[in-house]
Amino acid sequence: MSTGPEDGLPDLRARLAAYEGRVAASAGVGKDPVNEPMIRHWCEAMGDTSPAYRGPDAVAPPTMLQAWTMGGLSGHTDRSEAYDELLALLDGAGYTSVVATDCEQEYLRPLRPGDPITFDAVIEAVSERKTTTLGTGYFVTTRMDVRTRGELAGTHRFRILKYAPRSRANRPNPPTPRTESSAAAPARRPRPVVNRDNAGFWEGVAAHRLLIQRCTACAVLRFPWLPGCHACGSQEWDTVPAGGAGTVYSYVVMHHPPFPAFDPPYAVGLVELAEGVRIVSNVIGVPYDKVRIGMPVRLEFLRVDAELELPVFRATAEGEG
Ligand code: ZN
Questions:
Q1: How remote is the CA of residue 273 from the centroid of ligand 1, in Å?
Q2: CA of 279 to the centre of ligand 1 (A)
Q3: Which of the two ends of the chain, N or C, has the fewest CB atoms closer than 10 A to its terminal CB?
Q4: Is pLDDT above 50 for 171?
Q5: Ligand 1 center–CA 106 separation, angstroms
Q6: CATH-assigned architecture of domain 243-321
Q7: pLDDT over 50 (residue 3)
Q8: pLDDT of 25
Q9: At the top level of CATH, which class does the domain 12-168 belong to?
Q10: Residues within 5 Å of ion ligand 1 by Cβ?
Q11: Dist. CA 228 → ligand 1 center (Å)
């Protein structure tokens, strides 16, 4: 949905449109030519064992197109200012959040080890103002042309949404730039999306039971809840309540980006239940930097606010629980 005259910034749309066609990166040079080690790492990460990417006649996986242009941690020094200006303009108008929405690639010539890489990028399009489930904002599309030895090897279109998060976008007034003084009441934790496929899980949580789906055809347990069995395809199922014992199978510590209602750093755990399925949850009762793989944990239910209760896992001493 797009709206008419701009939200209190009548010339914003025109100012944004003026960036269409401007250079986002010019005469970029790949930091390394196409090379076998990067191809090998990529294939390992993707689990791609195709012989086309190995040996003396190897080509690079086409989807690596953008990888050859990336600047790494230190970045590219020859970056154009237009793209940064455009993002700053949107930030200043209150569209402070960003999410990558999609990319499209077109392959015109295979790349092989030894091919040097050059690239140019242009700001191809800035959309009308759109309202999405995330919030209201503008889609910005850049197109990168990747070349080698004077030939176009492929194009990479990358689209982001710069938006004002929904709570602010829903205000009748235009979104305003975030400032220190606009920090208001603490944000609420996100609500779960409850649908007919997972409603039973949340009914269980409300009754302080963590319910695992069990296929009635082949007895395989599954979590999170899904309509069908991944092992046999049956759509018939019942549930078994988790006993509550588990271990930390893996975890990450979130530092960035910050999300409203969460106070980084904090640990997000992937907990393996004694029944064998895994659940993403909070590990509580231990500092974020003391969470460890293999740590025993026990299920609890945390009341977050009047409407929200969540299963969480408390670290327990070894042998307990
Ligand atoms: Zn099954």
A1: 19
A2: 19
A3: N
A4: no
A5: 40
A6: Beta Barrel (2.40)
A7: no
A8: 82
A9: alpha beta
A10: 215, 217-218, 220, 229, 231-232, 234
A11: 8
Ligand 1 geometric centre to CA of 318 (Å): 34
Q: What residues does CATH 2.40.50.840 cover in the chain?
A: 243-321
Q: What is the mean pLDDT of the chain?
A: 88
Nearest of 291, 286, 287, 248 to residue 270 by alpha carbon: 248
Residues of the chain with CATH 3.10.129.10: 12-168
Predicted confidence (pLDDT) at residue 183 exceeds the cutoff of 60: no
Q: Could you tell me the distance, in angstroms and rounded to a whole number, from the CA of residue 200 to the centre of ligand 1?
A: 18
Q: How confident is the model at residue 139 (pLDDT cuts 50, 70, 90)?
A: very high
Strand partners, 136: 131, 164
Q: From the CA of 236, how far away is ligand 1's center (Å)?
A: 8
